[in-house]
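Make up an example, fold above all:
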Amino acid sequence: MYKVAVIGDTASVSGFAALGLSVFRETEPDKIKKLISRLAASDFAVIYITEPAAAMVKDTINKYRSSRLPSIVLIPAVEGNTGDGMRALHEAVEKAVGSDILN
């Protein structure tokens, strides 16, 4: 069975543990890169990562964009959001339906 992970700062990701998700409280770029690689090699189908954490490891995330699994999804954090998560959502919707129906 596939698993779901959440990566980011403690304040932003702690609540996801109550939902049964695997929570990784990490904010150091090198450790996040290694963590993503380890999760991708395991049974993790979805990796949620806070926008600030994702901004530090864009190259690693881009490496998995064309892979079937894992799906890496940006989520807002308590602080330091970049807007990348919402932009990615708009792009995915536009690609799927042919126009941006979210605006």
